[in-house]
Amino acid sequence: MLDGDPCSIIENEFVKPGKGQAFNRVKIRNLKTGRVLEKTFKSGETVEAADVVELQLQYLYNDGEFWHFMDPETFEQYQADANAMGEATKWLKEQDMCTVTLWNGSPILVEPPNFVVLEITETDPGLKGDTSGGGGKPATLETGAVVRVPLFIQIGEKIKVDTRSGEYVNRVKDD
Amino acid sequence: MPEWRPSAGPEALKARAAMLAAIRNFFAERGVLEVDTPLLAPAAGTDPAIEPLRTVFTGPGHAHGLPLYLQTSPEFFMKRLLAADSGPIYQVCKAFRDGELGPRHNPEFTILEWYRPGFDHHRLMDEVAELVMACLGRELPVERRPYRELFLERYGIDPLESDPSRLRQAAIEHGLPGAESIALDGVDGWLDLLLSHGIEAGLGQGRLTFVTDYPASQAVLARLNPDDPRTAARFELYLDGIELANGFQELVDATEQRARFAHDQALRAARGQPPVAMDEAFLAALQAGLPDCAGVALGLDRLLMRSLDAAQLDAVMAFPLGRC
């Protein structure tokens, strides 16, 4: 816990001049904002531990205000607000599995899978036969997210997207 | 299954053996005697910045247990040898320190310590540079930078004429992360923060940099400089931002030494640190007469890191704590 927010330690470096005060130079991610900051502590200083767990949860539905998730093992349900959802709303489709961070039992951070497969709902027809992919065009996905896709991609096709960069990866054929 | 393999490869093991051979050869040529002193003893250094590990011996004469310390350096025993007219001596041994663990720290490490009766610390610095270059097998430029000069250059602050609030201000102005919220006691805590976070990484880039003339409050076991008693005849050696060695023109005054131990113990008590017994046998040796000498301790694992261009100790230690 740091300034009232739960944080995770990314890096913790022990720094000590041979005959002097020892320090820990720590890189911390604020789990509420995702922001990374650096801090220096005297070695041996203590901070309050945060009650934080990470779970793999299945996305169920959105009721207009909250996004609902379920633990597929215990069937326990959780609801996340827009703050916790952040960018994840752009990529989630019902039944997708996500990494959800709980603080004191409530979701504070929802991370979508690194790759999602989504259907194109809107895009310009483009030129038939152009498979070069040069230039590209915007396409709207079933979740409402807009990504740049190659010109040959058509409405109704499914594509794989990297949610970390928001970039098109490839076309996915239905089996 | 536990990881049983060593973390250092065969190249590092060979380099370590070659370095030890080079060191023994270096001192044999100079007529410096190799000695061997206890790692386990009923007293230890009182320095509040260095915490010894403790254990207990139970056996003949000590049915209820004799508390012992693993030595944080062989200094006191080596000075007892010097007081008994050993002449110049060196030792390669393990040293132990509680609380120290990281890419450049392991609770147990290999130290090379040597003492030169009749040398002052300037002459000893010359010899340290020669030894390090003999171990590395290459020549390097050597420079000496007074502690005060480094602070003036980097922060525009005179470390010998400053106070905690001004040092704290400098740390905040220079964007040292967390400087506004950290609670440090006294000038030395802030000087340590400013040195370790804003100066050390730039020291000894492609050269051997000796930082000299530390503030008197950080003299540890060094004499004060007679021409400027605000500073001590203490030096540290850096190579590529890594601290390799610490040396002194040794304090030989038993009364002053006892006063420094008492000061350390008072600091320990004030900070809630466990007390450490004063080494009375060492004080008695000083009383009997330690010859004028200079001495230095050098971290061999770190020197090996530089020699192999390794970033972490586990590349040069067969079994660092994480592999034990």
Characterization of the model:
- The complex is a heterodimer of chains A (175) and B (324).
- In chain A, 2% of the residues lie in helices and 49% in strands.
- Chain A has one helix spanning 82-85, and strands at residues 7-15, 23-30, 36-42, 52-62, 67-70, 77-80, 97-103, 106-111, 115-123, 137-141, 146-149, 158-162, 167-172.
- Chain A contains one helix and 13 strands.
- Chain A has 175 residues and is mostly beta strands.
- In chain A, the strands form three sheets. In chain A, strands 6-5-4-7-8 form a five-stranded antiparallel β-sheet.
- Chain B has a single domain (10-141, 206-323), classed as BirA Bifunctional Protein, domain 2, CATH 3.30.930.10.
- Chain B has helices at 10-30, 75-83, 121-136, 147-155, 164-173, 186-198, 254-270, 280-289, 300-307; strands at 33-34, 40-41, 53-59, 62-70, 89-96, 108-117, 142-146, 208-215, 224-225, 228-239, 242-249, 293-299.
- In chain B, the strands form two sheets. In chain B, strands 1, 5, 6, 7, 8, 9, 10, 11 and 12 form a nine-stranded mixed β-sheet that branches. Chain B has a three-stranded antiparallel β-sheet with strand order 2-4-3, with no helix packed on it.
- The relative contact order of chain B is 0.18.
- Chain B starts with 9 loop residues before the first helix and ends in a 17-residue tail after the last helix.
- The model of chain B has no long low-confidence stretch (mean pLDDT 96).
- Chain A binds chain B through residues 13-23, 25, 37-44, and chain B through 47, 49-50, 99-105, 176-179, 181-184, 188-189, 191-193, 195-197, 200, 218, 220, 236, 243, 246.
